[in-house]
Design a protein that fits this description.
This protein is mostly helical. Helix content is 69%, strand content 3%.
């Protein structure tokens, strides 16, 4: 059995209440979670206080608290992990911002994601989160595509699988969302 199917099988067993499946699963997904965390943090300021390992551990704690999730696949798992990492980073940014009474907001680079039409620039994570919240009210699926592609690092195909839509639909939503976010974040 290939690793993707093995992970999916363990996720389903975990959904059915098997603690043993969770214990076997974590070593198999740890490296990919670490890559996700490193990808997130590679876009952050150099002096960011949260490290990849700490982000993984916080994400892990939130993942094991997911009691009502019916895990569908490896892609579904990593999509939820990406969402949790995004929330942790935003919460961290808000806490730091509050701690300094309006101090430095956490900045991230949108380079690899090419979110802003291929331009490498620094974006305030809280501003991006707020813009995604506004986008979600306009088009929830576009916001999910951004979350999965940018924060989750999923390919067009993996995003399509997670959202149960075609690759073409994801590509269209990705393109439209990038343009909308570019406008929102550069006002």
């Amino acid at each position: 059995m290939n690793q993707t199917r093995q992970i999916t099988q363990m996720l389903r067993e975990w959904s059915d209440g098997s603690r043993e499946a969770l214990e076997k699963l974590m070593p198999l997904v740890y490296d990919e979670l670490h890559r996700q965390a490193a990808r997130f943090l590679s876009h952050e300021r150099r002096d960011h206080t949260l490290q990849a390992t700490a982000l993984i551990h916080e994400t892990y704690l939130k993942l094991i608290d997911q009691r009502e999730v019916n895990w569908e696949s490896r892609t579904h798992f990593f999509a939820i992990a990406a969402n949790l990492m995004r929330r942790i980073l935003v919460d961290h940014a808000r806490a730091k911002h509050r701690g300094k009474r309006g101090g430095d907001a956490i900045k991230l680079t949108l380079g690899k994601a090419e979110l802003i039409a291929g331009q490498e620039r620094s974006i305030d994570l809280m501003a991006l989160d707020e813009a995604l919240g506004r986008l979600e009210k306009i088009d929830e699926q576009q916001a999910r595509v951004v979350e999965l592609r940018y924060f989750g690092g999923l390919s067009l195909e993996e995003t399509a699988e997670a959202l149960k839509v075609s690759r073409t639909t994801v590509a269209t939503h990705w393109s439209m969302a990038k343009a909308w976010l570019h406008r929102e974040l550069t006002r």
